[in-house]
Write a structure and sequence with these properties.
The complex is a heterodimer of chains A (341) and B (277). Chain A is an all-alpha fold. Chain A has a domain of 204 residues: MetI-like (MetI-like fold). Chain A contains 14 helices and no strands. In chain A, α8 crosses α9, α9 crosses α11 and α10 crosses α11. The longest helix of chain A has 39 residues. Chain A is globular and about 85 Å long. Helices cover 73% and strands 0% of the residues of chain B. Chain B is built from eleven helices and no strands. In chain B, α1 packs across α2, α2 packs across α11 and α9 packs antiparallel against α11. Chain B is elongated. The two termini of chain B are 21 Å apart. The relative contact order of chain B is 0.15. Classes of the chains: A mainly alpha (341), B mainly alpha (277). The interface between A and B is large, with 56 and 50 residues.
């Protein structure tokens, strides 16, 4: 266990440093913009006294270092300030909207791995053949259009022309579920509503698939190239001369070693999924962080913009730690190192 | 150069890519002459012909104020290409320099530069661009700044990895032994050897810059009306689904064609220039 623990500890330390850097970057971006944040917050009709009082509450009269200190202190206490857009604590807003986005991103991530990896493995197994070429063209196509274009095409094909999936929303409108975790799939199960669970899943599939398409392409292309490299190793030739079937060689000797580098990069692609969720939510009227995020950006709602970016980055960094853990668990080099301890 | 041309013309995929990219570049350059209704690139209103499906007069239909979609797509390509050129000419040198410095100089420089790179990479690109765009004003220039800010770290990371691998190679050691300066080694020895990887990535990225820029304007934070833009065309059209499908499908396909073209070329280049990647 020792090596995994130390790997995780090291990773957590790096993550903390990076998150600290993110906070400085976001804070700087938010402070260098032209205009007085207090004036922007109160609008053009506020009096000078009101603006001055607001500057005092926002600590804008202190030096930039003191301001940053307040910002970090508040963040660590889970206080991201009040959103000018909704007049509620930014944390409350994010807690309300983020789960819907995460649900979408997690299912998209599942599609990405469960469809992308096998596609890449098939392409590598039949490298140079027609299956390889077909998969290459398909995966190049999927990465060549933004998620909103795929969302539009999928909605036209599978919601309007052949009504297989709902057009918008998270759950059938006649079903009301009390929010507990705000993850619809979990809340419906807590409420004991199987029909609700199925309806929520039904609503989730098309947007998640639209979101995952370019990720599927990337995962497949990555798996293919990593696996083709493994195929050049002498031990594959040895396995072939031992008379193992090509299928067994592909799944046991070529796919598994290629999984480790692929998974690490797929973890990074999670950032793209979180960002692209903004595009897909828009088409499917999905009540996630996107509408809130774009809303606060258009309103120049500083607290909310900073808070949203911080939370999304933190989510991404946590997802990467989880991926690294997975890799550490499946990587025999780390696993066996710990047995010999 | 000659070798690259032979490679690209010899592969059916990259040939298709060259045709698509050639189409996009030509329509963008010649938009004023070949667009059926060049004046429709601006704020023209023609309610008699508003929201018409594709016909012989308007091959790709008209938008909700009666402008020819084909003409607007040609002019939108022009904006997309300008954006791609500007973003890459600014972000690639920055990223390459950071990568070379971090990879060659090691120690504190390496640690500091790569952590800064990590910071930028740990904010989802679209979210970073959105935040910058939102805090500045949504104009073409600011759009370029936003996309550039999210683009350089990828080059920093690419060149960093190459530099770390190259600096222990014989030719670098030889240069060090005869007393070549650090700057000379980084920019005259290591950089030329990382060029194939950089150029390949730039080809692929040209498509992705177009893609990200269209995503920003899709969210209403890119190029502003009446300047034609593929992302905002799709966004405007989504309200009229499914009846006026041409409003969203054609601009969407226009993005796909451009990005796919660059990706085909980049993919073939990568296969030939860096067989080990």
């Amino acid at each position: 266990m020792k090596s995994i623990v130390s790997a995780v500890a090291k990773r957590l330390a790096t993550t903390a440093i990076v998150l600290f850097g993110v906070s400085i970057l976001i804070f700087l971006i938010a402070r260098i913009i032209p205009g007085d944040p207090a004036r922007i917050a109160l609008g053009p009709r506020a009096t000078v006294e009101q603006v001055e009082r607001m500057r005092e509450t926002l600590h804008l009269n202190d030096s930039i270092f003191v301001q940053y200190g307040y910002f970090v202190g508040d963040f660590l206490r889970g206080d991201l300030g009040i959103s000018l857009y909704t007049n509620r604590p930014v944390m409350t807003d994010i807690a309300q909207f983020l789960p819907a986005t995460l649900e979408l991103v997690l299912l998209a991530g599942f599609f990405m791995v469960s469809i992308g990896l096998p596609l890449g493995a098939i392409a590598a197994r039949y490298r140079g053949g027609w299956a390889d070429h077909t998969i290459r063209i398909i995966t190049l196509l999927t990465v060549s259009a933004p998620a909103f274009v795929w969302a539009v095409i999928l909605v036209l094909l599978f919601s309007y022309y052949t009504p297989l999936f709902p057009i918008a929303g998270r759950i059938h409108e006649t079903i009301s579920i009390a929010p507990v975790t705000r993850f619809m799939l979990i809340d419906t199960l807590i409420a004991g509503r199987l029909d609700g669970f199925l309806s929520a899943l039904h609503h989730l599939i098309l947007p998640a698939f639209a979101l995952s398409l370019s990720g599927i392409g990337q995962a497949a292309r990555l798996t293919r190239s990593n696996m083709v490299e493994v195929y050049t190793q002498p031990y594959i030739e040895m396995a072939q001369s031992y008379g193992f079937s090509e299928r067994r060689i592909a799944s046991k000797f070529a796919f598994k070693p290629s999984l480790i580098p692929s998974l690490t990069i797929i973890g990074l692609d999670f950032a793209a999924l979180l960002g692209n969720a903004f595009l897909v939510e828009n088409i499917f009227a999905w009540p996630g962080i996107s509408r809130y995020g774009v809303g606060v950006i258009l309103q120049k709602d500083l607290n909310a913009i900073v808070g949203t970016v911080m939370i999304i980055s933190a989510t991404f960094l946590i997802a990467n730690i989880v991926v690294d853990l997975l890799v550490a668990v499946i990587n025999p080099r780390i696993r066996y190192a710990e047995q010999s301890d | 150069m000659k070798r690259a041309a032979t490679i690209l013309l010899g592969n059916p995929l990259s040939c298709l890519g060259l045709i698509l990219v050639g189409f996009v570049v030509l329509t963008a350059l010649l938009a004023d002459f070949i667009a059926p209704y060049p004046e429709h690139a601006g704020a023209v209103v023609d309610f008699l012909n508003a929201n018409k499906p594709p016909s012989s007069d308007y091959w790709l239909g008209t938008d909700v104020v009666g402008r020819d979609q084909l003409s607007r797509i040609f002019f939108a390509y022009r904006i997309s290409l300008i954006l791609g050129v500007v973003v890459l000419t600014i972000s690639v040198p920055i990223g390459v320099t950071v990568g070379l410095l971090a990879g060659y100089l090691s120690g504190w420089t390496e640690y500091l530069l790569m952590r800064i790179t990590d910071v930028f990479l740990s904010i989802p690109p679209l979210v970073l661009a959105l935040a910058i765009m939102g805090l500045l004003e949504p104009t073409l220039i600011n759009g370029m700044i936003a996309v550039t800010a999210m683009w350089w770290p990828w080059y920093a990371r690419l060149v960093y990895n190459i530099t770390r691998a190259e600096k222990v190679e014989g030719y670098v050691l030889a240069a060090e032994v005869i007393g070549a300066g650090k700057v000379h080694i980084m920019f005259r020895e290591i950089l030329p050897n990382s060029l194939p990887a950089i150029i390949t990535k730039m080809t692929l990225d040209f498509g992705f810059v177009i893609l990200i820029a269209s995503s920003l304007s899709f969210l209403g934070l890119g190029v502003q009306a009446p300047t034609p833009d593929l992302g905002s065309m799709v966004s405007d059209g989504t309200r009229y689904l499914p009846d006026s499908w041409w409003l969203t499908v054609f601009p969407g396909l226009a993005i796909l064609i451009a990005v796919f073209g660059f990706n085909l070329i980049g993919d073939v280049l990568r296969e030939v220039l860096e067989p080990d990647l």
